[in-house]
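Whether sequence alone determines local backbone shape is best considered at the level of individual chains. For completeness, the protein is quoted in full, as a sequence line and a line of structure tokens:
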Amino acid sequence: MLSLGEKAYCAALLALKKKEYLQAFENFEKAAPYFANNKEFTLYHDTTKLLVEVKRKLGTLSEDDKIEIEEIFTHG
């Protein structure tokens, strides 16, 4: 059985997968007290917070708004 923090973390990861960044951020906020020392959690939480803040500053944040991100990797 998962704790409340683990449930919130899982919900946040699922929201990220669906590109629902505002919902993900809200769930990361709920899980934050339980994962204060987890580096992976902190990376996801801070990155999602940054995405939400950028969209808010641009004035384009809505519940169903999605950001398309293209990842480029170079080998060498």
